[in-house]
Amino acid sequence: MSFPYRVASSFARSVGVLSFGAALVGSAGTYAADTAPRTAKVAEQPYGWLLTIKGNVVLSPNFPGAKSYGFIAYPSLSLRRAGTPDNYSAPDDGVSIALFGDSQWAIGFVGKYQSGRYRENDRRLYGIRDAKWALEPGLYGEFWALADTLRVRGEMRYGINGYNGLVGTLALDYVQRVGKFVISGGPRVQFAGSEYMDTYFGVTGVDALQNRNVTQYKADPGVKSVGVAAAATYRWNDQWSTTVRGGYDRLVGGAADSPIVRNLGSKDQFTLGASASYTFPLGYAP
């Protein structure tokens, strides 16, 4: 379950993600959202279940294309059977539940949360319509081209609440274990349909009349951004681990040309974060 809180934005508009995160993450089939090695295991336990509790802090843009930043702090949970691998997942993966697959590939459900854009949080947005937060359920697939070393992953999601349309992500991760460290990273490409682009990057005629910093604009669908993400995890022991992460995305195409980005925001989007997790046995499995 996930409870995000953005210090620089309205908490009331973030709580819509709570039930979504709880439904996905509170599952025994969930991939833990950290960079622990794919084959790493907690020492053999006499218990049937292993519960991992994690605290996360992320610094990210306040809305898509923003040049101002805010913190998001949220806890997360994952549950798995004792003796099973703590599967690798990059920090920017959507919350995932594998339905089919093995150690080399997986297909399943995925979900993400998209923050909104609100005039009350930035006076420069005066007169520009709000873009609400959205939940993005969908499907994902991943394949290990080199066992435990090179992973290819794709996500296709559909927005609910803030917009109604498709978005997608392609990611390539190189994973390397060095002692107690797990280092991973690779390129990212994000796609977005017309509904998403119009919601977060489009400008209506009324918006332009009320805010002279922007002109009427319709954002074309397609590639939204290209970038890179990286993370490093240190496993202190079988119970404790900590992770630091960073990412950079460069807005391109219709997103980069938006007057909201050109005049009020930035094409360069950075993300920094850290997390700490603790794993312990919980009850007996039947």
Q: Would you kindly provide a written description of the structure presented here, covering whatever features stand out?
A:
This protein has helices at residues 17-25, 194-201, 205-210, 253-256, 259-264, and strands at 49-61, 69-81, 95-101, 105-114, 134-146, 150-158, 166-178, 181-192, 222-235, 240-251, 268-281. The protein has a single domain (11-281), classed as monomeric porin ompg (Porin, Beta Barrel). It has an 11-stranded antiparallel beta sheet with strand order 2-1-11-10-9-8-7-6-5-4-3. The radius of gyration is 19 Å and the shape is elongated. The chain is mostly beta strands. The chain has 5 helices and 11 strands; from the N terminus they run αββββββββααββααβ.
Name its key features.
elongated; disordered N terminus; 5 helices; mainly beta; 286 residues
CATH top-level class: Mainly Beta
CATH topology, which one? Porin
CATH superfamily assignment?
monomeric porin ompg
Low-confidence regions: 1-5, 7-46
The rough form would be described as elongated
The total tally of domains equals 1
What is the gist of this entry?
With 286 residues, this protein is mainly beta. The chain has 5 helices and 11 strands.
How would you summarize the topology of this molecule?
Blueprint: H1 17-25, E1 49-61, E2 69-81, E3 95-101, E4 105-114, E5 134-146, E6 150-158, E7 166-178, E8 181-192, H2 194-201, H3 205-210, E9 222-235, E10 240-251, H4 253-256, H5 259-264, E11 268-281
Antiparallel strand pairs: 1-2, 1-11, 3-4, 4-5, 5-6, 6-7, 7-8, 8-9, 9-10, 10-11
